Amino acid sequence: MVLAPHADDETLGCAGVIQKYIRHGSPVRIVIASFTLSDSKRYRKEQSGYGTYSGKKRISELKEAMRLLGVTDYHILYPDQTGKQLYDSRLDRIPRVELVAKIERHIEEFRPTVLYIPSITKHQDHEALHQAAMAAARPYFWSGTVLVYETDGELMFQPNLYVPLTEEAMNLKMKTLEAYQTQIGSLRHPVHPDSLLHKAKFRGNQIFEEFAEAFQIIRLHG
């Protein structure tokens, strides 16, 4: 089960391993924390201001990304149709106990063996979901494997698990990210297929492979 603060984080950090699970017939559930279904804003450095994109466009991007990866089981914790962006970039304002309870319900229902959680980055939503996931994954409640994946803007990330990717898997990962057109930035932006490629090559170099995804083990349940 993959917990993602926003739709695209699962692709940035886990699209390679998701493909491996799917290919081997393992069930995969992706749980996205917040999703604005009405119009929302995104800062564009190239335009020196905020641009607006449609929630309908965003949901079509998510469906296409999931189709490319072969994932049919995906959920949104906080879908928002108010037009006020109540949850996107505001997960830190939701009571932690409420966010933990929502994650717990998915753990109880899906019963994963491995839980992938986002790293702590400069974005408050990533930190809020990371901390809530750590609470939900306490051994007394659920004792499976917990792995942290990287997205962008990490404040602290020390990988100790690397998963090599084939060129085919890497190409599909980049194609999946391209489905999220409203989220892709400029060539140097971390949410860009070229940036994804450079990071995968860097992680691959660390284990003498062409491409790889990197994770931090919180708990390994053999």
Describe what you observe in this structure.
- It is a single chain.
- The chain is α/β, with parallel strands linked by helices.
- It has helices spanning 9-23, 55-69, 96-110, 124-136, 167-178, 193-205; strands spanning 2-4, 29-36, 40-44, 49-53, 73-80, 114-118, 145-149, 161-165, 211-219.
- The strands form three sheets. Strands 6-7-9-8 form a four-stranded mixed β-sheet, sandwiched between helices. Strands 1-2-5 form a three-stranded parallel β-sheet, with helices on both faces.
- Helix 1 (9-23) crosses helix 5 (167-178).
- 36% of the residues are buried.
SSE layout and pairing:
Elements: E1 2-4, H1 9-23, E2 29-36, E3 40-44, E4 49-53, H2 55-69, E5 73-80, H3 96-110, E6 114-118, H4 124-136, E7 145-149, E8 161-165, H5 167-178, H6 193-205, E9 211-219
Helix pairs in contact: 1-5, 2-5, 3-4, 5-6
- Largest beta sheet: what is the strand line-up? 6-7-9-8
Instruction: Report the helical percentage.
Output: 25-40%
Element-level helix/strand string = EHEEEHEHEHEEHHE
Strand segment tally: 9
* Largest sheet report: 4 strands, mixed
Distance between the termini: 17 Å
Low-confidence stretches: none
**Helix/strand structural class:** alpha/beta
**Gyration radius, rounded:** 17 Å
Average pLDDT works out at: 94
How many H/I helical runs? 6
Question: What share of the residues does DSSP label as strand, in percent?
Answer: 15-25%
Dominant shape: globular
What descriptive keywords fit this protein?
222 residues; alpha/beta; four-stranded mixed beta sheet; three-stranded parallel beta sheet; 24% strand; globular
